[in-house]
Amino acid sequence: MTMTHENGHWQDEVRRVAQGIRRRVLEHTITQNGGYLSQACSSAETLATLYVKVMRLGPSIAPKVPPPFPGVPSQHNSAAFTGAGYNGPHAPDLDRFFLSAVHYALALYAALIEVGRMAPEGLAQFNQDGSTVEMIGAEHSPGLEVTGGSLGQTLSQVGGIALARRLRGEMGRNWVFMSDGEFQSGQTWEAVQALSFYRLDTIGVYVDVNGQQCDGKMTEVMNIEPLTSRLEAFGARVFQVAGHDPDALAAPTELPPDGRPLFILAYTNACAGLPLLESRRPKLHYVRFKSEDERQTFASYLAAMN
Amino acid sequence: MEILSRVHARKLVEWAKDKPDVIVLSADLTGSTEIDLFREAYPDRFFSMGMAEQNMMSFAGGLAREGFYPFIHTFAVFIYRRAYDQIADSIAYPNLPARLFGFLPGVTTPGGATHQAIEDIAVMRALPNMTVVEVGDATEVETLLDAIHPVKGPVYARMLRGEIPRLFAADEPLRLGRARVLSAGNDITLLSSGICTEEALRATNVLRARGVSIQHMHVSTLKPFDDPAILEAAAQARCGVITIENHTILGGLGTAVAEVIAEAGVGKKLVRIGLRDVFLHGASRPYLMREYGLDAITLIRTVEQLLNADFGITESDLAAVRLDAIHSEAKAEAL
């Protein structure tokens, strides 16, 4: 645990942060008339549980308000940086966090604000030219450390990082947040194969199994189930949990590592906490309001949330 | 001519001895890419990644982010065709010091179109942050590692293996961004790379005897392509510039030369010898070089056209001066 909670249990804090993620992302979606809203609804408790309960992180060492984009990395640009500092310093015994499903960036930024690692005004830079607070997060974006926007690449990159940390004798764990759609990609399975082979049990992966992807319902686009037994067959240690229950989400991380990479499959509802969104099914990937009336309906709901 | 065997295999072990941050990754081609000696010498720094190149590239990116130098070894074709997205996002965008050693370029494998890297230089040159090098002889294989080690970003190295001739003096190491002058002259400027340099040396030998003045330079750094000596040589060529490469003429050495001479306003005729926008197929190296026009006789005919001359040179003239008598008798390498 990285935070202490003077009042009540950590579960209450998770619920507060999760509600804050939904509220901020909804507010943003209404203001901008578009956003990755369903992702916030499905992942709110997972991201909150990671930051409030699971990850051992130091305090943020990054500016509260994200600095402007420093230019792409190159031999001519010594100013390039990553957004890892929002998750605290790198240290042998501290954990690291990696967002693989980078279209969840808005939900992550909201989480960083709720846990006090980023200033609320940072979100005003979202998707603005010259800003690091990008819509599809990249390594310079707050809370991000690698570039995984084509999806399915982050788990392999974290494999390399975890291997490097083991070669240096570091004990900190490496947490990855993935979407279920990434399990359609061959590279993901290559990665799981390698993590198992090299017994990289410092890696823990949360998967937001919300069953949704760009074209609609995953079972109609390309089925990935049964995900638990597929992963187990690849040598992973898998827990299938109720993805909006903080206790269920956190419990597997209390177990001592046993040599297998850890996968926590959070089965979630992409409209959780926002029943209005149900009307948008089956296409939930990116919400853009179809009319001013619809936008007003969501705005009224937001007003009631506050 | 001296022929050396398994140069990279031995050099890598010796070179990496005092470099604990150098890690070798293999994609099930350990013997075929000459990293078996490294695996025996430093088993803790050798990681078998299986036949899974996409994961291997991103894994290498992760290792490099943490301060290691991942040395990826596989066939050239499997590096860029199977895992280009991963190279771009996990390695090149963050400008990480991964080293990609691509073996069996172009006609050097009889493995057919699936095994023959013919557009790798074009693809890698187009990728921001990537440095691209191709070795041409044993001396360059021996000295490549020292030459590229200071590069902060990723390097793609087009490699040679097995029996390799020593064309260049052992004490003249590969230098990034510097072409080697193999002969001086002003009728024709000839720029060659990789195995085509050995082939070009046969042709220039015969042509010089016929009185042709040739500025022959061997080019090992394909990107960045900024050696001023190349432009100077092109500018002074009386009858034109010729490039010869074991690669498609689109995007490789010939294209790089065309770009620099056009941008500098050097109005010289340029003939690019290479694969003319076609795939190769499975056959021996001498057969492919002849069939696809990458050989000495093609180069001689090209020179004759530029000079509007007919020297009456035949294959038997070339055979008489072949530099690779020993090499040509070396047994064909297995895949």
What is the overall silhouette of chain B?
globular
**Strand order, largest beta sheet of chain B:** 3-2-4-5-7-6-12
How many helices of chain B in DSSP terms? 14
Percent of residues in β-strands of chain B = 15-25%
Number of domains of chain A: 1
Going by CATH, the homologous superfamily of the largest domain in chain B would be Thiamin diphosphate (ThDP)-binding fold, Pyr/PP domains
Tell me the count of domains of chain B: 2
- Which CATH first-tier class of the largest domain in chain B would you pick? Alpha Beta
The average pLDDT of chain A is: 95
How is the topology of this model organized?
The complex is a heterodimer of chains A (306) and B (335).
Chain A (H helix, E strand, L loop, with lengths): L9 H23 L4 H18 L41 E4 L5 H10 L39 H14 L6 E6 L6 H12 L5 E7 L2 E2 L2 E2 H4 L5 H7 L3 E6 L3 H5 L11 E6 L24 H14 L1
Parallel strand pairs in A: 1-2, 2-3, 3-7, 6-7
Antiparallel strand pairs in A: 4-5
Helix pairs in contact in A: 1-2, 1-3, 1-9, 2-3
Chain B lengths: L2 E3 L1 H9 L6 E5 L9 H6 L4 E3 L4 H13 L3 E7 H5 L3 H9 L6 E5 L16 H6 L5 E4 L3 H11 L6 E4 L4 E3 L14 E4 L4 E5 L3 H14 L4 E5 L2 E3 L4 H8 L4 E9 L4 H11 L6 E6 L9 H7 L4 H12 L7 H6 L4 H5 L6
Parallel strand pairs in B: 2-3, 2-4, 4-5, 5-7, 6-7, 10-11, 10-13, 13-14
Antiparallel strand pairs in B: 1-8, 6-12, 9-11
Helix pairs in contact in B: 1-7, 3-5, 8-12
